[in-house]
Amino acid sequence: MLKIALTSVLVDDQDKAEKFYTDILGFEKKQDFAVGGARWLTVATSAETEGPELLLEPVGYDFARDYQKALFEAGIAAASFASDDIQADHKRLCAKGVRFRGEPTAMEGLPAIALFEDTCGNLIQIFETR
Judging by DSSP bridges, how do beta strands 6-11 and 53-58 pair with one another? Predict the structure, then answer.
């Protein structure tokens, strides 16, 4: 059976992304080493450091930059993260200055979701798992 081990999100600045994803969101840095003119920089959920990793991948090509910008302008999330308590996470992240696109909302039969800006060119969605 296949399992997700690594996925990525394009970022416009790896240093800024590292600070946001670790200091603000609370992920732990997993890998960090030079590759060409950039870094192989991954983070993981602090409770599951042996679980899937998120590569903070630099936007190195114009087409990638255009894609990232188009997603952002269309209001489409580049990644989704699970939350056990979306109201508490929303409050915690707002207190750290995270810019949300609205309050957490639920539609009938679906979990509550919220969308925020990651300061690196992306919209990120969180959804409640309980």
Answer: parallel
**pTM to 2 decimals?**
0.93
What architecture is domain 6-128? Roll (3.10)
- How far is Cα 72 from Cα 70, in angstroms, rounded to an integer? 5
Strand-pair category, 79-83 with 123-128: parallel
* C-beta separation of 4 from 48 below 8 A: no
Task: Count the residues in the chain.
Answer: 130
Task: Collapse the DSSP code of 94 into the 3-class scheme (helix H, G, I; strand E, B; otherwise coil) and give the result.
Answer: helix
pLDDT at position 47, please?
Answer: 84
Phi, psi dihedrals of residue 34, rounded to the nearest 5°: -70, 140
Kindly state the tokens that stand for 1: 């059976």
What pLDDT sits at residue 110? 86
